[in-house]
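Go through this pair.

…
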Amino acid sequence: MGNSALKAHLETAQKTGVFQLTGKGLTEFPEDLQKLTSNLRTIDLSNNKIELLPPLIGKFSFLKSLVLNNNKLTALPEELCKLKKLETLHLNGNHLRQLPTAFGQLSALKTLSLSGNQLRTVPTQLCGLRHLDVVDLSKNQIQNVPDTVGELQAIELNLNQNQISQISVQISHCPRLKVLRLEENCLELSMLPQSILSDSQISLLAVEGNLFEIKKLRELEGYDKYMERFTATKKKFA
């Protein structure tokens, strides 16, 4: 892509607060964007070949949405965690194995998508985020869900298509968790905490494609309680 094309994109972004440059084969984050650190509210650089997010990302203090789906990121800089206004972060289809230590400082974050990366566990940093609504960790390499998950504030947690064989009973203590997706994992029925059914806020539990038949789930103690929540939620949205 030529300089004149980039210049045109920059001029538009200055007016709109949105910089979108997708599917252009970019191998690095456009340095020229730093001229717009106070203008930009949205950056979308999906479907490129970006391997590194530079530390200057931390300067975009008004950024609300950052979308870098389908790039080649293997790590994220700590500077990303300075984005106090960031509400939406989409990083699907990269090669991320972990999140920056200070990730919990992204205090405005509502939607986090990390589908199709190489995470091996549910990052503990997520538990510090008070406004999280949706967390998508599907299609990673997560094998177990640790005790810290009990502090997660999310409303929806998507763990579909991982390798989960163990889940901490603490998941039933998540104060706002309504939707838990665990489809296509490696769960035996005995490894599914019954308290998810009998004693949690969860009103939609998706567990198809594990190592048990769904009808066996219906025989578990607490299933009736879960169905009450499920039906009440359905009525609310009907």
Q: What stands out?
A: The domain at 1-89 is CATH 3.80.10.10 (Leucine-rich repeat, LRR (right-handed beta-alpha superhelix)). The chain has four helices and eleven strands. Residues 223-237 form the longest helix (15 residues). The radius of gyration is 20 Å.
